[in-house]
């Protein structure tokens, strides 16, 4: 799903100070929480920075980057309007501290093409191998407008849901049916020029395209029968700009058929910041489809919205907008019933300085209580996506998480990786590191080898500019094959970290999960979408 979606797209910004809407406040006007001069500089930094988010570590950036990061942190603090904190002064003391302990450069080590990670110990073992190209057959498909390729931010499968890996329970008993399309096709969003495209598949091969509408800067689209007329509609998340910024151009659209069977656009939410994603479901148990909206925003904009369905005429949906969380940086929302009470909850990931995975538990009347599933230790973590899945087969939903967003500071990080957040019935979840991957933007589960457990496909997206490039090619598509104890790393593609989105489904109906990728940077006129057909020999399909 949903990826991210995405998330240059969203350009998560490293924030060291506090980020909320308000006017500037001078240092001299801040009266509270003075720091004792006897307090050590590291304690002062922890008290000041840690009041808003995880405390930045010196090893998060090389020496020559800390002046810029510290200046940004102070600037954002003064814009926040907080009066309960006293910043460490002078700021040069903070700079000296971080420069003293920071490395000269961030070292990125090369991961062998075939390696594994023991889930219990987290210790890697490696074997020499070559790039694995025999497992999947790649079929490329160009999508051009005025002879220029699209910039793909999101793709989703429109076919039979039974042809996708089961990663979430069936909600039919507690929410109206929201997805009605069972056509063998992929829906693709173009972020740069705003095209929404349906790509038909024949035996897993892209065959023809339908341009369904043009918006501004598409981040996400979701099939849904919003007016319950038996025909598929689409909900659209529109960022409102390609380049990140604070503005009010974000929108949520309802794309539906009019009386003449033509596509018609209806605005459901506007005058908000950059909208990254959304989710549908009956969150107040009134029998109508509501919409949760992830308004990523940027530095001074961004909220989690609930569009409560108040429709009285089925042909004209009406919604009341409420804010669930005023923090910026939400990039995904996925519904669930985490406490098995029959009410729809949801999970989301907040980026920016927050770097949180949160559960919002629903009391059944539309009141949500947040619980922390995961909190990163520092604000430059680069969270890029989540996916719910019962990863260990114990009957509850875990989280597959990625952090690889380098669009904030154009730097590769030693800690960019894929993780499993294990649900053991308490908060926060138990964190497991699965694999390192530079620029990892999306990871999805699937039993790609037919052995009964969940493997992982992961893709990478990096900016054109990288300030600490490596002298070896980076892995851009990985298959992490689980054998019950370890994850074996299979490299499917290198040196093309150009994938903001990923989808997994059985595209050709042979019982094996395949996957599809999109190209974000429009560099090739030969390849906009790629379908990767699983042709593993000896696959033990249950169909």
Automatic annotation (TrEMBL):
InterPro entries the UniProt entry points to: FG-GAP (IPR013517), Integrin_alpha_N (IPR028994)
Signal peptide positions are 1-24
Q: Which UniProt keywords apply?
A: Signal
Region feature Disordered, mapped onto this chain:
108-132
**Keyword DNA-binding appears in the UniProt entry:** no
**PANTHER family, per this entry?**
ALPHA 1,3 GLUCANASE, GH71 FAMILY (EUROFUNG) (PTHR45460:SF2), SIMILAR TO CYSTEINE PROTEINASE (PTHR45460)
Q: Would you tell me the protein name for this molecule?
A: FG-GAP repeat protein
Species of provenance: Neorhodopirellula pilleata
Supply the source organism's classification.
Answer: Bacteria, Pseudomonadati, Planctomycetota, Planctomycetia, Pirellulales
């Amino acid at each position: 799903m949903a990826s991210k979606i995405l998330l240059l797209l969203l350009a998560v910004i490293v924030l060291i100070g506090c980020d909320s809407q308000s006017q500037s406040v001078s240092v001299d006007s801040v009266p509270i929480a003075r720091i004792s001069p006897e307090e050590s500089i590291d304690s002062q930094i922890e008290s000041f920075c840690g009041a808003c988010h995880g405390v930045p570590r010196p090893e998060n950036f090389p020496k020559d980057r800390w002046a810029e990061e510290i200046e940004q942190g102070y600037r954002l603090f003064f814009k926040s309007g907080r009066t309960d904190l006293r910043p460490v002064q002078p700021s040069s003391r903070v700079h000296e501290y971080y420069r003293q302990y920071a490395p000269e450069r961030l070292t990125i080590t090369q991961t062998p093409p075939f390696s594994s990670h023991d889930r219990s110990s987290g210790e890697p073992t490696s074997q020499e191998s070559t790039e694995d190209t025999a497992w999947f057959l790649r079929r490329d498909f160009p999508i051009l407008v005025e002879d220029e390729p699209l910039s793909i931010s999101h793709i989703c499968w429109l076919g039979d849901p039974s042809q996708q890996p089961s990663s979430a329970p069936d909600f039919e008993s507690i929410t109206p049916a929201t997805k009605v399309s069972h056509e063998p096709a992929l829906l693709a969003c173009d972020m740069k020029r705003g095209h929404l495209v349906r790509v038909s598949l024949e035996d897993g091969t892209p065959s023809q395209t339908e341009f369904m509408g043009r918006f501004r800067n598409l981040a996400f689209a979701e099939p849904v029968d919003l007016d319950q007329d038996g025909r598929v509609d689409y909900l659209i998340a529109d960022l409102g700009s390609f380049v990140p910024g604070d503005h009010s151009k974000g929108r949520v659209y309802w794309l539906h058929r009019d009386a003449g069977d033509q596509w018609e656009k209806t605005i459901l939410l506007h005058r908000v910041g950059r909208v990254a994603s959304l989710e549908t479901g009956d969150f107040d148990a009134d029998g109508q489809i509501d919409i949760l909206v992830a308004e990523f925003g940027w530095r001074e904009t961004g909220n989690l919205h609930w569009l409560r369905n108040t429709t009285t005429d089925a042909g004209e949906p009406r919604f009341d907008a409420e804010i669930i969380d005023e923090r910026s940086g939400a990039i995904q929302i996925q519904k669930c019933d985490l406490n098995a009470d029959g009410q729809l909850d949801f999970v989301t990931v907040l980026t920016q300085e927050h770097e949180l995975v949160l559960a919002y538990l629903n009391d059944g009347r539309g009141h949500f209580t947040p619980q922390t599933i995961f909190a990163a230790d520092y604000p430059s973590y680069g969270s890029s996506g989540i996916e719910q899945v019962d990863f260990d087969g114990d009957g509850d939903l875990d989280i597959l998480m990625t952090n690889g967003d380098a669009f904030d500071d154009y730097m590769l990080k030693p800690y960019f990786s894929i993780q499993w957040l294990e649900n053991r019935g308490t908060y926060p979840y138990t964190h497991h590191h699965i694999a390192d991957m530079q620029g990892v933007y999306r990871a999805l589960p699937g039993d790609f080898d037919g052995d009964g457990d969940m493997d992982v496909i992961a893709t990478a997206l990096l900016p054109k500019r990288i300030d600490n490039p490596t002298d070896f090619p980076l892995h851009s598509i990985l298959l992490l094959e689980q054998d019950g104890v370890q994850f074996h790393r299979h490299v499917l593609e290198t040196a093309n970290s150009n994938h903001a989105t990923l989808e997994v489904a059985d595209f050709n109906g042979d019982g094996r999960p395949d996957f599809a990728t999109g190209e974000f940077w429009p560099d090739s006129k030969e390849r906009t979408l790629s379908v990767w057909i699983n042709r593993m020999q000896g696959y033990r399909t249950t169909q």
